[in-house]
Predict the 3D structure of the following.
Amino acid sequence: MSYPEKPRSNAWFLLPILFGVIGGVIAFFILRHDDPRKAKNCLYLGLAFMVIGIIFNIFIASSIPGLDSGFDVNI
C-alpha cells in the first residue's frame, strides 16, 4: 500500500533531540507514512544522540579521580 508523501514540520526533530532514541522511535512511527525520509532522519538523530551521550558519560566517569572499588567504607 502506497501512501502519499506529505511534507511535515521540522519541529519533529525536537522529539529525538529532547528524548533521544525513544523520541526518535516515536517520531519514526508517527512520520513513517507521511514523510519517510524525515522519519528515518529522526531515528538516526535519536541514535546519534544516544551514542554521544554514552561517550560523554564514559569521559565524565573516567575523569572522577577518587572512584575506586573500595570507597573506604568501614561497616
Observations:
- DSSP finds two helices and no strands in the chain.
